[in-house]
Design a protein that fits this description.
Layout: E1 10-14, H1 20-46, H2 50-62, H3 65-90, H4 98-116, H5 123-152, H6 156-178, H7 208-227, H8 229-239, H9 241-246, H10 251-278, H11 289-299, H12 304-327, H13 332-354, E2 355-359, H14 362-366
Antiparallel strand pairs: 1-2
Helix pairs in contact: 1-13, 2-12, 3-7, 3-8, 3-10, 3-11, 3-12, 4-5, 4-6, 4-10, 5-6, 5-10, 7-8, 8-10, 11-12, 12-13
Length: 367
């Protein structure tokens, strides 16, 4: 073989299929390698046995009954946002505006708690009104960039990102309007005495209703995407808009409808954050989870059941990183670095799931 026709050292090709057990094994290997790498870094910084540090991470997330339920609460929040992003992402509409949709949903919830939480509305009815208001607010916020995309083919990434900044400013306005009497530019705990508008305990657990609502949404969205006609249309539009038009699918209608659903679910996440967790509203209510949930939706390949596992892993890493930073007097940057390394390896494993790498054999090299 001539020099010009020589085989390349490395060839990368798309995998047609990988068995489920192999894809799971690849991801497990990636997690193990990431833990080993983090172990070296931890030992270099704190001079402690990495196993003890990992035990501290487990204790940080599941060390007590309260920590378990707080972790579950945060998992459900992450899962809810990931479920909301799934329809849009499956359609290849890159909705990076979940932060804003969460915030406007939270504003709608807080407004209902403040103006209707004076005893004139039954608690159960108030919760229903809050849920509908947050879904409507999030749906409208998601529909705006969808309309521009459908009519004028605007860039949805930039548009949804800009909508986040608008939502932050809108939240700041309402926080200033509703600030507590001491003028600290915070709303404080809403209805702290009456607890009207708060999620009630279910079976003695404060956050069990969060779990019920989010798991119900996960099941409904899974069925919607996999078995409904509209779910089929979303998949076709995501594969090829031209194919969708050839199949007589109204692409513009699908884009707007799907983003309305995506925004509505993210708005419900705002409802859960305000009514079912923090009982207040601020610009940090979303807390960056709208961006982290992108990883959840992407790694799960838009399967809402797989998202439960991914959400659990990410929240565990966050809780564990905070615990070791506190216990070993580390900077928050160190804990974020550890989380980032693990996520980097997990994301990297997706390359080997989707592509195969072949090295030139010695025999080919000698030709």
């Amino acid at each position: 073989m001539t020099q010009e026709g020589k085989e390349p050292l490395v060839r990368i090709s798309k995998r047609e299929f990988m068995p489920l057990w192999q894809s799971i094994l690849v991801r497990i290997i990636a997690i193990v390698i990431s833990l080993v790498v983090c172990g070296f870094i931890i030992f270099a910084i704190v001079k402690e046995n990495p196993v003890k540090v990992y035990e501290a991470m487990v204790q940080g997330a599941f060390g007590s009954n309260r920590r378990v339920w707080v972790t579950i609460r945060d998992i459900m929040m992450m899962l809810c946002i990931g479920v909301g992003l799934a329809p849009a992402f499956k359609m290849k509409f890159w909705n990076l505006g979940a932060e804003g949709q969460i915030l406007v949903g939270g504003i709608a919830t807080a407004a209902c708690m403040i103006y209707l939480g004076k005893g004139q509305v039954a608690p159960a009815l108030l919760l229903l009104i809050m849920a509908l208001a947050s879904a409507l607010a999030g749906g409208i916020w998601g529909t705006i960039p969808a309309i521009f995309k459908a009519r004028w083919n605007t860039n949805e990434v930039l548009f949804t990102l800009m909508m986040n900044y608008l939502a932050i400013q809108l939240t700041s306005f309402f926080v200033s309007k509703w600030e507590n009497p001491y003028g600290s530019n915070v709303v404080g705990v809403i209805n702290s005495r009456s607890q009207i508008g708060w999620f009630p305990p279910v079976l003695g657990q404060q956050y069990l209703l969060n779990v019920i609502i989010v798991l119900a949404l996960a099941v409904l969205v899974f069925i919607y995407l996999k078995y409904s006609k509209q779910g089929y249309e979303i998949a076709v539009v995501g594969e090829s808009e031209n194919t969708a038009r050839y199949a007589a699918i109204n692409v513009k209608q699908v884009i707007v409808r799907t983003m309305a659903i995506s925004g509505a679910i993210c708005g419900i996440a705002g409802f859960i954050a305000v009514s079912g967790a923090g009982h207040t509203i601020s610009t940090s209510t979303a807390g960056g989870r709208g961006f982290t949930a992108v990883i959840v939706a992407w790694l799960a390949k838009f399967n809402t059941f797989v998202m439960i596992l991914i959400s659990t892993l990410i929240v565990f890493l966050e809780k564990g990183a905070i615990e070791i930073a506190s216990r070993y007097d580390l900077s928050d940057y160190v804990s974020s670095m550890i989380t980032g390394i693990i996520l980097f390896f997990i994301l990297g494993s997706e390359f080997f799931v989707n592509y195969k790498v072949k090295f030139r054999s010695r025999k080919e090299a000698l030709k």
